[in-house]
Predict the structure of Glutamate 5-kinase.
Amino acid sequence: MAINGKKMNSNKTLVVKLGTSVLTGGSCCLNRSNMVKLVSQFAQQHSAGHRIVIVSSGAIAAGRQDLGYPKLPQIISSKQLLASVGQIVLIKLWKELFSFHGIHIGQMLLTRADLENGESFRNAHDTLYALMKNRIIPIINENDAIATAEIKVGDNDNLSAFVAILAKAHKLLLLTDQDGLLTADPRKHTNAELIQEVKRIDDNLRSIAGNTISVLGTGGMTTKLQAADIACRNGIDVIIAAGSKPDVIKDVINNVSVGTYFHAIKKI
């Protein structure tokens, strides 16, 4: 293992962010079938020697489902309550599904403070690398149950970009319910086309991304573009693709064109 800025070996490190819409299939609860298919893909690449780091949304949706869809006041403590309950449900399901492949997982709950504070950053860094070195797949989420507005990253798209930097990843894959970044919102414009390649993120691209927010998630294409910008500026390629696409993980690992590809900015 190398933690001095170099990649650990010739195999690749891939950080994958799973949006709530991917894990629920657009429904109001976790879709076990979708998660089984994803875990099978992860397991295949893990067995091939690649390092997989997962940033998983879905805790609030899982909590709402587990509690029987309660009517709660629209305040931050309600979301924290749901996240607290749902995180247990979510991680237990991940553990169950990965155990079928003989793979261990480790949970990491982070906040912005963990990623900005020197000592906390080093601790998170060391934990992440210890998990990867020992062939344990990290499952990462924001610590919603206790995070305040001042220390929250705010969404798992941006969190995944910081995790990719922390992991010194080769690529960051943002899986969503869309094929990638499109020229317009496909729900409003049937002629919207996929943007296959982005070499520079500019104001025009930000305008195209708009502010599309899924029903169950906290992000949209805007936050994915923010995440791509952060990762690309730190030398990490980013792909936005559909989580429902067969073999999407293998395609990204093997450099097969899929979704929207954001080229990393080369460091001088």
In short: The chain has ten helices and eight strands. Strands lie at 13-18, 51-56, 105-110, 137-142, 171-176, 197-198, 237-242, 260-262. The two ends are 25 Å apart (CA to CA). The longest helix spans residues 76-99.
